[in-house]
Amino acid sequence: MIARSLTLLLALTLAHAAGAALQPFDTDAFDEIRTRYANETVLVLIWSLDCHHCKDGMAKAAGLLDERPGLNLVLVNVDPADEAAAVASTLQKLGLSEADNWQFVDAPAARLRATIDPQWFGELPRSYLIDAEGNSAGFSGRISQDALDHWRQRSR
Predict the structure, then answer these.
(1) Are 126 and 139 in contact (CB under 8 A)?
(2) What pTM does this model have?
(3) Domain range for residue 87?
(4) What pLDDT, on the 0 to 100 scale, is given for residue 3?
(5) How confident is the model over 40-53, as a mean pLDDT?
(6) 8 A C-beta contact, residue 54 and residue 47
(7) Do residues 19 and 97 lie in contact, with contact meaning Cβ atoms separated by under 8 Å?
(8) The domain that contains 40 carries what CATH number?
(9) pLDDT tens figures, 82-130
(10) Cα(78)–Cα(1) distance, integer angstroms
C-alpha cells in the first residue's frame, strides 16, 4: 500500500513537472468537483490515453475554451497512475494543461466510477453536463456539438 502511494505521488509529481497539475481522483473527488462548481455549469469529460474519440471531444472543448476562457471544464483521466507523465503530455498537446485535471488513483476503477455514476460501467468517452442547479446528464460516446453548444450557452 505504501509503495502504491509513493508510486502515485511520484507519477503525479512528474506530471506536474510536465506542465499539467493532475489531482488524484479518489472516492471523494466527484463530490469535491460538484462542490467546487456549485451554482455553476460545468462539463466533465472522462477520458483515457487510448481513446481516440475522447481526444476529439477534448480538442473541441479546448477550442471553446480558447473562445471563452471562463467556461468550467473538468477532465478526469482513468489510466493508471504510472501513466501520469503521458497524461500530462497529452493535456499539454491539446492545450488543456490549465484545465481542472484529475487522474484515477490506485483504487478499484469500478469503485471510482460508481462515485461518479452507479449506472456507468466504464465505456469511453463519457461526459457529464452539470447545470447550476446541480442536475447532471451523462452521455457515452462522442460528445456532440449540440452538447458543447449547450454547455457554452448555459455558462453565460
Answers:
(1) yes
(2) 0.86
(3) 2-154
(4) 45
(5) 98
(6) yes
(7) yes
(8) 3.40.30.10
(9) 999 999 999 999 999 999 999 999 889 999 999 999 999 999 999 999 9
(10) 20
